[in-house]
Amino acid sequence: MKLLATLLVASAMLLGVSMASISSSYSYYRLPTALRPKKYDLRVLTHLENPEELRFEGNVKILIEVLENTKNITLHAKNLTIDEALITLKDTSSADKKNCISSTEVNSQHDFYVMQTCNELLAGEVYELSMPFSADLNRQLEGYYRSSYLDPVANVTRWLSITQFEPASARLAFPCFDEPNFKAPFVVTLGYHKKYTGLSNMPVKEIKNNDQIADYIWCEFLESVPMSTYLIAYSVNDFAHKPSTLPNSTLFRTWARPNAIDQCDYASGFGPKVLQYYEDLFGIKFPLPKIDQIAIPDFSAGAMENWGLVTYREIALLYSAAHSSLVDKQRVASIIAHELAHQWFGNLVTMKWWTDLWLNEGFATYVASLGVENINPEWHALEQESLGNLLTIFRRDALESSHPISRPIEMVSEISESFDQISYQKGSTVLRMMHMFLGDESFRAGLQKYLLKYSYGNAEQDNLWESLTEAAHKYRALPKSYDIKSIMDSWTLQTGYPIINVTRNYEQGTAKLTQERYLLNTQIARAARGGCWWVPLSYATQGEQDFNNTAPKAWMECDKNGGVLPKTITDLPGNDQWVIFNTQLSTLYKVNYDERNWKLLIETLTNGEFERIHVINRAQLIDDALYLAWTGEQDYEIAMRLVEYLQREREYLPWKSAFENLKRIKNIIRQTPNYEFFKRYMQKLIAPIYLHLNGLNDTFSGIEQQEQVLLKTMVGNWACQYQVEDCIEVAQSYYRAWRAEPKPDEKNPVPINLRPTVYCTSIRQGSDSDWQFLWTRYKNSNVAAEKRTILTSLGCSREVWLLQRYLELTFDPKEGIRRQDSMWAFQAIAYNEIGFHLAREYFMNNVDFIYKFYHPITKDMSRLLPPFSEQTFLESDFEDFKNFVTANRGSLKGLEQAIQQTLETMLTNVQWKQRNYRQLSRSIETMI
Ligand code: BES
Ligand code: ZN
């Protein structure tokens, strides 16, 4: 399949090139390769003074090198007004060799702007193309767009402009060769009223007065290094900034609206530290003279790594000690670390085409966790994020509708869809796997080699495999007969991950291992699953608890045709000792043991000696047991008995793994008559840890281990959902104390880390006026993290009318919820068991409106779907949704992938209900 796709692409490319030189009706999705931009000179004048007329006009001069003779210039432009009479074309080698544009046409499918030239452009020549353009600053959060905030002192709205170009929106801001492999240096010059500040990728070179418009200036920035168009950024704003002070570091500034500047301290301290760490890790200095990070009030993604001018949502950059929780703070750290990792992986070395987007996003995700781990080792971010990614991918990639990490891309909508868990979390997981099987030294050496070799250029995954293989052989980290490509192709070109069946022979001390793809949909015959993965095998035994050794003791290989080769492991202990494969979950696979081995494991877990098993492997055992029970390969009774050991567990990761799984069961079973048993089981499970952590009492200042803060936050939340001990009372008393404050916007007695639980519980149990009180706090809050917590909690009400009102105001821009935040409100309502039915009704009745509301960022709309997939388990509801999807294709365009996953998840829930509902109910009934 892959080969076929590659061939098709290759031949189409050939076709594209030759077509470019003969015809203008060019319909291939990539730009022709006859021309190459050598340099851009971009001037943009921005008008922000009149809110009725927020617009820009500009001119771009592109130096174009001709690689093959051609009679047209084809580049990208979208939604721009271009006066074609003003386009000029000059041969730079001789001033008197005139050329011109004879006609133009637009291909709106691929956003091409095609200019026929008066004379043929000849290979070897260099032309200067000059094009004027103008447009409104749009409201769509991409291209060059407007944002605003309320200045509370003057009580007026202030406007600013900002760009978001990735993946394919530079073409909305200026005509350009908008593909990642067309790198060129940029000189940006911004024109604006002198009361504003202009920012771009590079530092200011000089500022001049604008001779034509009074009080306007021209701000020219230094020429950049060669870069891809999607990384260009500029902004005109009246923000305040905070310089960083780390010695010997790049000039580093953090920007925000003036009223939020005091929330920039944390980011301005953390940013330069992590930048320095990367300089050491990669052995390459940050190549630009400065870096700015800026918090934008209206922003669609979480953050964007523009080279030298990194943009963020406010919640992703700003931190307030008085309002942000530890989770919020760690999120800020992790996002900054991610975007700064891109300055190397993505900006310095860029993927050739979006097919290899994971080289950007998977790397940034993995390297960010190394960065945070290095700067705040006490957080154990590496373990936490690694497990979090694994848990996500175990679920997502067990769907038949998943896709390989590396995938063919032909349309802009497909590029956007690729920013998904597969590129980020699976990409990061397979990099971690390599790091663990190669060891630190050769992994780093391989990365350095790769970065150096492709600096200011583009690469594809095979280039990375090559650098890593060289390093691995040099450091003897891999047998000479192995190469990284054979191993890694099985992970990046193939969808899914394996389950390894371990059958031990206790007399002989051996185990036989086989593998097949793990799928949640049990209607698909096992034999049809196919697939083979190269698996580094590590294991620990009860006698030799060698969990720190993640180096492979053996490999599971595949034959030349990708067929499975079973593997026998020898030297295992006898029948009184367990074996655990995959130490620290270094590799993405599930394990099923024979019954005896499971029994031995459960014995160790439940007899109080569970700490002999590495904490990540405890999380693994929980996850595996519950998955196998879900798909019918394990008895639920055994799985739930295993889970019961948690009554003694005091660490965060195993609990996290358990809750992630139990949440799925909860979402179904709480809509059924047998919920009572599940509820009692949960109460029994949670009570000991709740009490151990001192309930909801404010013990945070005394907690030394940071993970215990996260544990307490998470357990508190579940305890109140399940009415454990005094949880609800304590939560409500905190809330009452807050309501009694004379100035609740200034003083909030609720412990920060418990606020999500306290608010949600109080709204769930509370009155209209409790809801109104919180909504007022939302409107008055100046802190994005606090606002998000409130939005999520407002969805916890059990009053149908309040939920209905909340739904409607969520999609009413006048009400003050920004579009970028609307999905949090919607999700909160839709995950509430009462709100679910309202939200479903609302979504199905208003899908056209919702589609337009989010247009063109369909990715945001796709975030409304998980509550439906996770709570639908009746065949009839599943069929309804299927019909709804078919009838509304037009309003779900660009969400195809998300819809496929939604439907498949619903189907697996239907299967679960049919197969497991009774069995689970019966087995927990005996345990409570
Ligand atoms: N390059 C992305 C931003 C992006 C996402 C652009 C989607 C276009 C489409 C950026 O580096 C990123 O990954 N941002 C994440 C946050 C990150 C910490 C995981 C995001 O926006 O969710
Ligand atoms: Zn990223």
From TrEMBL:
EC number from the UniProt entry: 3.4.11.-
Classification via SUPFAM superfamilies: Leukotriene A4 hydrolase N-terminal domain, Metalloproteases ('zincins'), catalytic domain
Peptidase M1 membrane alanine aminopeptidase domain sequence ranges: 271-491
GO cellular component, one term: extracellular space
Site residues (Transition state stabilizer), renumbered to this chain: 424
Cofactor(s) needed: Zn(2+)
Top-rank lineage group of the source organism: Eukaryota
Membrane-topology descriptor: Lipid-anchor; GPI-anchor; Single-pass membrane protein
Keywords recorded for this protein, A-Z: Aminopeptidase, Cell membrane, Disulfide bond, Glycoprotein, GPI-anchor, Hydrolase, Lipoprotein, Membrane, Metal-binding, Metalloprotease, Protease, Signal, Transmembrane, Transmembrane helix, Zinc
GO MF terms held by the record: alanyl aminopeptidase activity; metalloaminopeptidase activity; peptide binding; zinc ion binding
Keyword Glycoprotein: yes
Enzyme class: hydrolase
Pfam (any one): ERAP1_C
InterPro entries per record: Aminopeptidase_N-like_N, Aminopeptidase_N-like_N_sf, ERAP1-like_C_dom, M1_APN-typ, Peptidase_M1, Peptidase_M1_aminopeptidases, Peptidase_M1_dom, Peptidase_M4/M1_CTD_sf
GO aspect biological process, one term: peptide catabolic process
Name this polypeptide is given: Aminopeptidase
Gene: LOC117574037
